[in-house]
Specification:
2-enoyl-CoA Hydratase, Chain A, domain 1; alpha/beta; about 375 residues
């Protein structure tokens, strides 16, 4: 008999609910089952007076920490999207509802963002009361590389980064470390990786007056970290404030700096269509609350799989990156300059009337 191991471990120790993502071989990529388990756990603890706060961490093959969450399970998305499995609809609806719950959680939710923190991993950490990064943190929203967009609330939290960092992060999909995560308002403080276990144990053994005391206890231990991209902030703000993707790439290619040329080269590898969609997404989201943004993203992700039957950028991007691994996606349209405004705008037309939207019940 094969013993199955839960992909989400949870326990209440002392006055704190502790969650460990336990799918290390997949870098804790979120399955539908994990999304459902997380939602169930958080809803139960939300109304439990014995739980003052919640902490969440990932795990690697050696044990706790080391990897937080690499995103959603893209192999599942490719398989389900390829055959029209309705569970793909459930996955995004339930994942986005979980993201909203975390952002609006009534108790301090503390995320130990060690190792890889990408895509769906950002979705279950950006709403935290404390977002802790380490020297091992590798943070990104790399969705344009697979023909997707930075979802899980990405429009909301990227659009609230300082300057035009949100556009840069969302379009290029670059990986950043602890110092830049803090500088871009995507993390609250630094804790050395070898101090995490001590802090985790303390959360389960200390006595706290209330949830605020739990948060203060952890916050007092956090440090700052040196950003590596400070020299490029002005460039990011200059180029990524331009009015269109074509204008951004054209200006970058005309510049004489190595950074600009390298950035343009990366953009040329991404899905041209989704670059245009992402720029529109981030800019629309600046004037939206979280629930509005998540509803917009739910519309977008539906269109990513079904707007153009047989021509899904997302299925093609995942195929090239993770299934066939030929690293040669056949984007359609092929060039940034060939994407029509009408095609981009069609992604933002909701397939549902407001009262029947899958996320109609979300309130901010």
């Amino acid at each position: 008999m094969v013993e199955t191991v839960s992909e989400v471990l949870s326990e209440v120790r002392g006055q704190v609910g502790l969650i460990t993502l336990n799918r290390p071989r997949a870098l804790n990529a979120l399955s539908l089952g994990m999304v459902r388990d997380l939602m169930s756990i958080l809803l139960a603890w939300k109304d439990d007076p014995a739980v003052l706060a919640v902490a969440v961490r990932g795990s690697n093959k050696e044990g706790p920490f080391g990897a937080f969450c690499a995103g959603g399970d893209i192999r599942f998305l490719h398989q389900a999207g390829s055959v029209g499995d309705p569970q793909i609809e459930d996955f995004f609806t339930e994942e986005y509802a979980l993201n909203h719950l975390i952002h609006r959680y009534p108790k301090p939710y503390i995320a130990f963002m060690d190792g890889i923190v990408m895509g769906g991993g950002m979705g279950i950490s950006q709403g935290a009361a404390l977002r802790i990064v380490t020297e091992r943190t590798k943070m990104a929203m790399p969705e344009t590389a697979i023909g997707l967009f930075p979802d899980v609330g990405g429009g909301y939290f990227l659009s609230r980064c300082p300057g035009r960092a949100g556009e840069w992060l969302g379009l290029v999909g670059e990986t950043i470390g602890a110092g830049d995560a803090i500088a871009f308002n995507l993390a609250d403080g630094f804790l050395a990786a070898d101090q995490q276990a001590r802090m985790w144990e303390a959360l389960g053994s200390q006595t706290f007056a209330d949830g605020a005391a739990v948060r203060s206890f952890v916050a007092a231990e956090l440090k700052t970290a040196v950003p590596k991209l400070e020299a490029h902030h002005a460039d990011i703000n200059q180029y990524f404030a331009l009015g269109s993707v074509s204008a951004i790439v054209s200006a970058l290619e005309a510049a004489d700096s190595d950074w600009a040329k390298a950035t343009a080269a990366l953009l040329r590898k991404r899905s041209p269509l989704m670059l245009h969609v992402v720029l529109e997404q981030v800019r629309r989201a600046r004037s939206m609350d979280l629930a509005q943004d998540l509803r917009m993203e739910r519309d977008l992700v539906r269109h990513c799989f079904y707007l153009r039957p047989g021509q899904s950028e997302t299925l093609e991007g995942i195929r090239a990156l993770a299934v066939d691994k030929d690293q040669s996606p056949r984007w359609n349209p092929e060039r940034i300059e060939d994407v029509s405004p009408e095609l981009v705008q069609s992604f933002f037309a909701s397939p549902w009337p407001a009262h029947a939207h899958p996320l109609a019940s979300l309130q901010d």
